[in-house]
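Holo prediction. Input below; ligand is S-adenosylmethionine.
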Amino acid sequence: MQGWIVPPPKKPTKTKEQLRREREKKVRSLIKHGYLRSERIKNAMLKVPREDFMPRCYKDYAYLEVPFPLPGEQATISCPHSYPLFYEPLGLDEGHRFLEVGLGSGYGTALAYEIVGKDGLVVSIEIDPLTFDYAKKNLEVAGYHDVVLVKGDGGLGYPKFSPYDRICITAACTEIPPPLLAQLKVQGRLIAPSAEHGVQNLVLYEKRETSFTREVLCEVLYVSLRGKYGQCENPAF
Ligand SMILES: C[S@@+](CC[C@H](N)C(=O)[O-])C[C@H]1O[C@@H](n2cnc3c(N)ncnc32)[C@H](O)[C@@H]1O
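Structure of the complex:
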C-alpha cells in the first residue's frame, strides 16, 4: 500500500459555496464507489464541512483523498472515504452510544454526532494534548457542544459512559486494548486498524455473550496507537 503526497500549504482561496459543491461531489463519488450506503451517514457527510476541521493552510484541499497533518505529534485528519469505511460496517446509527479513540481534528466526532443524533452519545478520547486542544476548538466553533471530549489514553476507554454500542479506534494497534473490549455491549461492534506482519488491516469485531467474531475488511494505513496498549516506535508514515 502506498503513502500519500500532501500538497503544499497555501492561503485558502475557495469560497464556502465552492467547498459545498466539492462536498456534494465527494458524497456522490463515495456512493458510486460503494463506500457510502446509509442515509444517516450520507446526510452527516453532506452536513459537516470537512474544511472546518482542517488547518487553515490546507482548507482548499478538504475533499482530496489525502490525510493531512494536524497540530500534535502524529495526528492526521483521515481521508474523506475513511469515515464511511469505518462507520458503515460498524452500522453506526441513531441512538447509539459511541466511543471514538483518536479524536484527531474532531471531524469524525462531528459526523458521529450527526449520525447518532440527540438520543445517542458521542465520547471521544485524544492522547496528544496539542491535538486535543485543536479538535476541541474546532468542535466548539462548529457548534458541537454536546459531545464528551476526554484528554488521555483511549486504550483505557472511558468506563463512565460504558457499555458502548459502537467503538471506533482510529489508530493502528497490535492488540485491541482489553478495556475497550470490556466496555463494549454484548452485540456491540468495534472497528480498528490492526497491525500484523508489517501490514495493517481494518478489522471488525462483534461481541457475543462469551466470545467475539472477527472479520478482516481491507488493508489500510493509519498512525500507530500510543499509550499503554500502543506499539513502541513505529509511526505508520
Ligand atoms: C488518524 S488520527 C484520527 C482522525 C480523526 N478521527 C479525525 O477525524 O480527524 C488518529 C488519532 O489517534 C490519536 N491517538 C493515538 N493513540 C491514542 C490513544 N492511545 N488514545 C487516544 N488517542 C490516540 C492520535 O494522536 C491521532 O490524533
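The first helix runs from residue 16 to 32. That is the main takeaway for now.
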